[in-house]
C-alpha cells in the first residue's frame, strides 16, 4: 500500500442521470446535501451508446454551476469515433476538465459494438483528440472483471489504460478489503503507482445489490448475503447491517492508506452521509 499512502485523500460521489423532472428534483436535494461534505468531485454515469448523453451533461453542468467539480462519464461501447469525438468536443466546449472513461456494456440486442473495443482505446482516443485537456479517471476491478480471461490478463489490461494516458483509477465496489489490498500490491509489482480509489457501495436494498453484484462480478460474502437475504422486506435491518459493514470496510481501507473513497450513492444522500459521519472524515 506504500504507493497509495503518498497520494492526498480524495472523496467523490457518483450519481446516475435521472429520467424524469421529479428524479432531477430529488437528485438536486441529494447533491446539495452531499456538497456540504466538500468532496473533490461528483460524477455522473453515461448510458451505453450515448443514450444518456444530454441528461449526463445536464446533471454535471447543474452541479458545476454551483461551483463544484463535476465529471461526466463517457463510454465507447456502441459508439462510432465520430460520436465520441462529438461528445468530447461538447464536454470541452462546456468547460469540463475531468471525465471518467469506460468501455460500458452492450445492451442485449444491440447491433454493433462500436468503433473502439476497449477502454484503453477510448483513453488513447481522448488523448489523441484533446491532448492533456481532461483529467481522465478509469475503472479497475480488485475482484477482476467478469469477462477477463484471468487475473493477470485483467491487470495487464488495467495497465494498458494507464499507458494510454489515463490519470487515476476508481475500483468496482467490493466488500472484501483484502481483495483491494492484494490488487494494489499486484499493481505495485507492475510499477503502477497512480491513485487507486476504492469504489464504495452503501447497502440499501438487498435484491438490487444482489442483481448488480451478480452482473458486475462483485462478491457479496456468503455470511453477508445470507443475513441480508434473511431480513426479507425489513429495510431497516438491511440498512442497519449494511451501514455497519460498509463503514467498517471504509475504515479499514482508509486506515491502511487508501487514497480516498468513491461512493456509488444511487442518487441518495442518507446512507453515504451516515457512513461519512461515522467515519469522522
Ligand atoms: P475495459 O477496460 O475495456 O475492460 C473490459 C474487459 O475487457 C475486461 O475483462 C478486460 O480485462 C478486457 N480487456 C480490456 N482491454 C483489453 C484489450 N486491449 N484486449 C483484450 N481484452 C481487454 N458503465 C457504463 O455504461 N456507464 C458508466 O458511466 C459507468 N461507470 C462506471 C464507473 C466505475 C467507477 C466503474 C468501476 C464501472 C463503470 N461502468 C459504467 C461499468 C463498466 O462500463 C463495465 O464494468 C464494463 O464491463 C467494463 O468497462 P471498462 O472501462 O473497465 O472496460
**Uncertain segments of ≥5 residues (pLDDT<50)?**
none
Percent strand equals: 15-25%
Strands in their spatial order, largest beta sheet:
1-2-3-4-5-6-7-8
* Number of distinct beta strands: 8
Order of helices and strands: HEHEHEHEHEHEHEHHHEH
Helix content: 40-55%
Provide the domain count.
1
Q: Which features does this protein show?
A:
binds flavin-adenine dinucleotide, 281 residues, TIM Barrel
Structural topology:
Layout lengths: L1 H4 L4 E6 L5 H15 L5 E4 L8 H13 L4 E6 L5 H13 L4 E5 L16 H12 L4 E6 L10 H13 L4 E6 L3 H13 L6 E5 L5 H11 L5 H9 L4 H21 L4 E5 L5 H10 L2
Parallel strand pairs: 1-2, 1-8, 2-3, 3-4, 4-5, 5-6, 6-7, 7-8
Helix pairs in contact: 4-5, 5-6, 10-11
Bound molecules: flavin-adenine dinucleotide.
Protein described:
The protein has 281 residues and is α/β, with parallel strands linked by helices. The chain has one domain (2-279): TIM Barrel. The protein contains eleven helices and eight strands. The chain has helices at 2-5, 21-35, 53-65, 81-93, 119-130, 151-163, 177-189, 206-216, 222-230, 235-255, 270-279; strands at residues 10-15, 41-44, 70-75, 98-102, 135-140, 168-173, 196-200, 260-264. The protein has an eight-stranded parallel barrel, surrounded by six helices. Helix 5 (119-130) links the parallel strand 4 (98-102) and strand 5. The mean pLDDT is 96. Flavin-adenine dinucleotide (FAD) is lined by residues 45-46, 48, 73, 75, 100, 102-105, 118-120, 139, 145, 147-148, 153-154, 157, 160-161, 170, 172, 199, 216. Flavin-adenine dinucleotide is lined by residues 45-46, 48, 73, 75, 100, 102-105, 118-120, 139, 145, 147-148, 153-154, 157, 160-161, 170, 172, 199, 216.
Amino acid at each position: 500500500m506504500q504507493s497509495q499512502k503518498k497520494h492526498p485523500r480524495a472523496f467523490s460521489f457518483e450519481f446516475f442521470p435521472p429520467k424524469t423532472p421529479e428524479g432531477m428534483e430529488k437528485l438536486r436535494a441529494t447533491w446539495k446535501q452531499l456538497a456540504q461534505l466538500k468532496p473533490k468531485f461528483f460524477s455522473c454515469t453515461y448510458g451505453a451508446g450515448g443514450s444518456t448523453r444530454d441528461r449526463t451533461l445536464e446533471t454535471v453542468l447543474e452541479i458545476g454551476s454551483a461551483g463544484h467539480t463535476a465529471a461526466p462519464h463517457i463510454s465507447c461501447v456502441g459508439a462510432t469515433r465520430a460520436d465520441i469525438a462529438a461528445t468530447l468536443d461538447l464536454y470541452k466546449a462546456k468547460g469540463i476538465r475531468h471525465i471518467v472513461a469506460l468501455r460500458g456494456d452492450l445492451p442485449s440486442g444491440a447491433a454493433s459494438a462500436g468503433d473502439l473495443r476497449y477502454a484503453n482505446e477510448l483513453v488513447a482516443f481522448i488523448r489523441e483528440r484533446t491532448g492533456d485537456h481532461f483529467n481522465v479517471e478509469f475503472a479497475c476491478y480488485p475482484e477482476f472483471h467478469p469477462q477477463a480471461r484471468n487475473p493477470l490478463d485483467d491487470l495487464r489490461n488495467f495497465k494498458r489504460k494507464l499507458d494510454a494516458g489515463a490519470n487515476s483509477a476508481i475500483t468496482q465496489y467490493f466488500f472484501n478489503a483484502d481483495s483491494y489490498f492484494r490488487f494494489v500490491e499486484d499493481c505495485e509489482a507492475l510499477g503502477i503507482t497512480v491513485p487507486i480509489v476504492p469504489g464504495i457501495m452503501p447497502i440499501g436494498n438487498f435484491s438490487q445489490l444482489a442483481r448488480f453484484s451478480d452482473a458486475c462480478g462483485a462478491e457479496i460474502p456468503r455470511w453477508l448475503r445470507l443475513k441480508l437475504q434473511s431480513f426479507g422486506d425489513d429495510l431497516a435491518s438491511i440498512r442497519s447491517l449494511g451501514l455497519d459493514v460498509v463503514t467498517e470496510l471504509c475504515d479499514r481501507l482508509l486506515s491502511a492508506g487508501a487514497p480516498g473513497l468513491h461512493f456509488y450513492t444511487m442518487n441518495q444522500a442518507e446512507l453515504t452521509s451516515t457512513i461519512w459521519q461515522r467515519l469522522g472524515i
